[in-house]
Amino acid sequence: MAAVTAHQTTQKTLGTANAAGGAGSTAAAGETDAPAADHLAAFDAAVAADERIEPRDWMPDAYRATLIRQMAQHAHSEIIGMQPEANWITRAPSLRRKAILMAKVQDEAGHGLYLYSAAETLGTSREELLDKLHAGRQRYSSIFNYPTLTWADVGAIGWLVDGAAITNQVPLCRCSYGPYARAMVRICKEESFHQRQGYELLLALSRGTEAQHAMAQDAVNRWWWPSLMMFGPPDDASSHSEQSMAWKIKRHSNDELRRRFVDICVPQAEALGLELPDPDIRWNEELGGHDFGAIDWSEFQEVLKGNGPCNDQRISQRRRAHEEGAWVRDAAAAYAAKHAPAQTSPRTPASASASAQTSASAQHVEETA
Ligand code: BYC
Fold it and tell me: From ligand 1's centre to the CA of 348, what distance in Å?
């Protein structure tokens, strides 16, 4: 991939940003008279110096839009990702396993909340993002469109899916956008526990009876290739990587992270006593890493188009959960409205408008009660 600086790439998008009059250009215009070129220079200098861009800083509209796209996709993945594993909570083989699995699935919900909150700092709302998810206008990770057929799948998800997620997400702790980077620190700590529990679960099965070992191997066979696809298309087909790396949203390309993940998994599979379902994996002395077999990118494209084994099931379950949760949101809004008038501190225009909204919903609640 050709090296591109943030400056070169943001120059390309400056015209769009200003013509659109979007949040990036208008936020800055309200605060200072400096021309847009000065804002862009300051933004590029901050990115080049590895400083964090914060919500109130000027940023190109395209940078904002890219972050919203990626953070929304990430948040959606966390909450849709609860489904495949939640499928096994009632069937966990012991109280210990059940408690661990429940904690893990709850953690994923928490990750979704941190990420929606971080995305909201960019001027969007959780409601808007969820509407887009439910309408199929925003994506979630391809990996969650595969079924969890046996208990061993819970282990394979922990080891491989959470393992791939950590490999991808640790560099995001250094993302140029402050709220995203900070959210990732805590998420990565929790993902680490998730990966360990999956590994430990698979180890117990692998060292168990012949049938348990076979179940663990079967799960690894089914989850290996989709886990490699989580990193996204190969670099030459990745439409966003070049720009996202120039902006230091992404720190490594999809292929770099995928290779790193394979290198991590090979010795772990050996220690587990399980095989990775790829006869072409071998050490490449020159590269100092492993070569591996060709990924079936047509399967990835099909899953992205909505034709994976569980796409319909996942999105309809998500819509149903959202509808059934409406009363909780209403109750929370009513509670917030009830306590809103007690606030007497000086208000910014933003908090005044939020408070006006809650007062309006309080009125609505009183009228309909
Ligand atoms: N699945 O230009 P590219 C978890 C799309 S959840 C679906 O390389 P980018 C967990 C991509 O959006 C963790 N779509 O994109 C939860 C783009 O489409 P559009 C999930 C994918 O953004 C519960 C097009 O393909 N992690 O850990 O530069 C239980 C071109 O791709 C995928 C994250 O979300 C995919 N796999 O790079 C257990 C990490 N890959 O928008 C575990 C944050 C690509 O042009 N996200 N696409 O239509 C990222 O790091 C990046 O967004 C990606 C893709 C590396 C995923």
Answer: 36
